[in-house]
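input
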Amino acid sequence: MLQILIYGAVSSAIYAMLAVGFTLIFGVARILNLAHGSFYALGAYAAYVLTSLLKIPLFLAAPLAVLLVAGFGVVMERFLVRPLRQSQLAVLMITLAVSLAVEQALFLIFGSEYRNVPSFVAEKMSIGGVDISGQRLLALVAGVLVLLTLWLFIQRTRLGAAILAVSQDPEAAQYMGIPTNRIFSIVIAISAGTAALAGVLVSPFLTVQPSMGLLPMVKAFAIVIVGGLGSIPGSIIASLILGYSETIVAYLISTSWTELVSLVAVVITLMIRPSGILGRRAAF
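output
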């Protein structure tokens, strides 16, 4: 039981880091970013390049990787998404194209071999008789801190208030002097950075390979549907539901069945409550 609680919390924290950035973009810019999984993969590969090829210490490489991916997100928003933002279909297509381009670029540069990224914490730890790697515990703690910091940033700072204003009415916010385009860039930088951080934290205990962004993208999409598009609290609740449901299925049935959990959750949500657990009205 304790094993399920601990490992379920780790999975939920990682899913929450992925889903919160995804739903933040939708809540503020009203776009579905299908390149979100690419940010996760780029974060892992950036950590690999910086640590294994350039021999930069991991504690420096990790924040540098996050900043590089956040910058990539800003460039993507400025030159590819912003000119097409009036058409949601066009934005879907261009972000899908970016996702495929990133995956193919990773294949061409690194090949299909699995890559190894060093751990921040190599030792195993024991909690109540349950053994768990220190890196997994670090991912759990980092996920909680990221969510708490993001909530404080949005609720307690002037920039967070501007993001809230743009999420509620972009035109009114612009009339009030808030630079909406700059807000969109900041939001996508936050989204890309949190996804990249998730990639950096999980890469030591999961496989790093070019298509690693696809499954997290599917998970993030499922979570925001279950939690409600545009709702950060809903995404956190859905992350807990999916994280623990998958862990329970893995322990009681088989790990090969876990990928079905998110799909079943999406189908049930669309049948019972199409707007999700909290829906758009509860954004932030």
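quick obs: The longest strand covers residues 124-127.
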